[in-house]
TrEMBL record:
Residues 125-228 form the Late embryogenesis abundant protein LEA-2 subgroup domain. GO terms for biological process: defense response to other organism. Keywords: Membrane, Transmembrane, Transmembrane helix. This is Late embryogenesis abundant protein. It is found in: Membrane. Residues 1-11 have a biased composition (Basic and acidic residues). One of its GO terms (cellular component) is plasma membrane. InterPro entries: LEA_2, NDR1-like.
Amino acid sequence: MADHQRVHPAQDVEAPPTPEVPLVPQGASKSDRGDPAQAAPYPPFRRTIPVMHSKPPKKRRSCLCRCLCCIVLLIVLQIVVVAIAGGVMYLVFRPKLPKFSVDKLQVTQFNVSDDQSLSATFDVTITARNPNKKIGIYYEGGSRISVWYVATKLCEGALPKFYQGHRNTTRLVVPLAGQTQNAGALLGGLQEQQQQTGYVPIVLRVRQPVRVKLGKLKLFKVKFLVRCRLNVDSLSANNDIRIRDSSCKFRLRL
């Protein structure tokens, strides 16, 4: 069989080259969706604010609150227990304050020396009464008793240590001594006071630490504070001074 000859078109070498034409016309968008300028506008941008949820309380804070509540509860419980115990003790023992009185005042020395210093020595007789049926009183050391005229301390001393039982009355004679410098004006004031009123006002102060005994229980130490106002006829030496009137006030300090 004769071979089929393939015929190929001959290319004109002298013909000018044909320019390549782009698939998309010039000035048109390459997207197949059309012109983006004529496309639908995008929706406006809206900022999304995240929702903040409250965090649960921390475990440490809750533990601290529980501790504070427990402490407050314990304090309140202790106060209630102490109040109940105090009420029971009051009903059982019926405590009453002691009573003091100044029965006698003797001046053994009261004179002014050449240097205008005043030397005073008194003997004071004091009666202490314990009106309680079931309470005893221990008078401890460290007490202080003093005699004053206006704002000047004339003499001082101390009460002895002793125990005062139930419904007991104890009488004490306490020596007092003291010295006051530049006492010329003080002595003149005493004499003028005596001439105008006929008496001399003095004050006796007592600070006494004690321990209270309830049955067989000896409690902690407290202080008795006694203030007695006395009007005496004079302060002349070597005489028993007559006490015209007196009044004593008693206080208790923890």
